[in-house]
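Dear H.,

Thanks for agreeing to be a second pair of eyes. The structure we're designing against is below in token form, covering all 59 positions.
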């Protein structure tokens, strides 16, 4: 039961981080840097390496 809960949590987490990340990438393509920065903060805080890297590049 615990393994199932962990798997479901990880799947939900990766989907959430991915959604924020995709939103940030669309904002960057449009040149909306402030929007991209806000969208990258959540997954970066959750430890998403791609989001942390892209957030660093914005600065």
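And this is the sequence the design step returned. I haven't edited it by hand at all.
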């Amino acid at each position: 039961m615990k393994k199932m809960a962990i798997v479901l949590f990880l799947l939900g987490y990766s989907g959430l981080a991915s959604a924020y990340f995709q939103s940030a990438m669309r904002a960057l393509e449009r040149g909306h840097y402030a929007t991209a920065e806000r969208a990258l903060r959540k997954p970066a805080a959750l430890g998403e390496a791609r989001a942390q890297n892209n957030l660093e590049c914005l600065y």
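Two observations from my side: The two ends are 43 Å apart (CA to CA). Residues 5 and 11 are 10 Å apart (CA to CA).

Warmly,
E.
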